[in-house]
Amino acid sequence: MSRFITVAIHTYEKALSLRALLEGEGIEVELNNVNLEVPGFSSGVRVRIHEEDLPLALRIIENRELFTTASEATAASSHVILVPIDMSENSFKAALLAATLAFRHKESLMFLYSYIDPYITGNVQFTDALSYDIGETGAREQLVANARKLMEHFADRLRSAMKRGEAPMVKFDHTVVEGVPEDAIIEYARINPPRLIVMGTRGAEKKESEMIGSVTAEVLDEGRFTVLTVPEPSESATLLEPKKILYFSNLDQNDILAIDTLYRLYGTKEASVTIVHIPKKRRFSDRSADKALLRLSNYCRDNFSHYHFVSVPVRQSDGDKEFAKLNEEHHFDLIVIPNRRRNAFSRLFNPGLAHKILFQTDIPMLVIPV
Q1: Contact at 8 Å (CB) between 247 and 276?
Q2: Closest alpha carbon to 312 in 111, 327, 57, 304
Q3: Is residue 51 classed as helix, strand or coil in its secondary structure?
Q4: 327-368 pLDDT, tens digit each
């Protein structure tokens, strides 16, 4: 018999959901350290499977929406802008920006705050069994109460800002969940698909110290959601009406869909859009890439009247250097990247373009799944 290995550690409810999903596909699952007497307080439950089932389990988890029923997943995006917050000043800045976008597009806001249970996460190890102390139940209840109190304070502050005219009056709601922030955001958005996720990010010099584990980077890498990043140094006025936009093209039909998403969000004002394609080896010749860029630019000029499109051919595959060169020349207000979802191993060893640029610049990004 092969040994059991841990494929995930979740709260009790999420562990049950994952077990049902995997067992439905013929994978044997066992749960460890579940407190059956008080399951509602049992976070940090191990989901374990046979080692030879790991590749199949990862494919199922990575493409979970393909294995869920219609009742378990929402088919279309709702008219909601999701704003994950961490109670920082920059997350409040992102909330004000999101309020203006919501007012402009007649949508509502949902604020999401996640907290981590220190009684579990502080002692989690992948080699030792997790323990649970019923005596900590009262402390956990206080932890939940404090998280909800922080959220209520955030909501009161936003209402006050709306009353002072710092943001338009829009309908909003909020929720507090337990879990690692990036996992909580992805799980919530998967079940309740938003039209847009607005996320505040730190400055580039601070991002360098947190290259591993950035919440925004993890959400971008998931590749399922349209995400607008709001860096600390960025100006809200520029984010609301970008004049110079850089668009990274894949030279396929998805470019039209991505530019349409951009136009629906920001197409009320005139702007200059620079379309650039970073070549990949053996996919396009220089001549065919130039022709494809020209056709794309001509199509966009005919169909997106408020934008002025310019295509820039690039001969080198070093996207980082080309981006730095272009930005030095144009000083872009917004970067738009069509983003394909990739498996966990690809994301680990070869991060996507959106992930790389996130850590290089303080320019806001609109990342669109294709």
Answers
A1: yes
A2: 327
A3: helix
A4: 888 889 999 999 877 666 566 666 778 888 888 888 999 999
pLDDT of residue 194: 93
Pairing, β 45-50 against β 29-32: antiparallel
Question: What residues have CB less than 8 Å from 312, skipping those under 6 apart?
Answer: 274, 275, 276, 293, 326
Whole-number Å distance between alpha carbons of 82 and 85: 10
Q: What is the pLDDT of residue 122?
A: 45
CA 132 – CA 188 distance, rounded (Å): 26
- Tell me the per-residue pLDDT of 228-249, one tens digit each, with 9 for 90 and over: 999 988 887 788 899 999 999 9
Neighbouring residues of 235: CB distance < 8 A, sequence distance ≥ 6: none
- Mean pLDDT calculated for residue range 222-226: 84
d(CA 290, CA 277) in angstroms, rounded, equals 9
Question: CB burial class (10 A; 0-12, 13-18, 19+) of residue 349?
Answer: exposed
DSSP 171-223: -EEEEEEES-HHHHHHHHHHHS--SEEEEEE--HHHHGGG-SS-HHHHHHHH-
- Distance between alpha carbon 369 and the CA centroid of its chain, in Å? 10
Q: What is the pTM of this model?
A: 0.73
Mean pLDDT of the chain: 80
Helix axes 215-222, 181-191, angle to 10 degrees: 30
| Whole-number pLDDT of residue 59 | 78
Query: What is the token pair recorded at 276?
Result: 């650039």
Alpha-carbon gap, residue 226 to 265, rounded angstroms: 11
d(CA 351, CA 369): 15
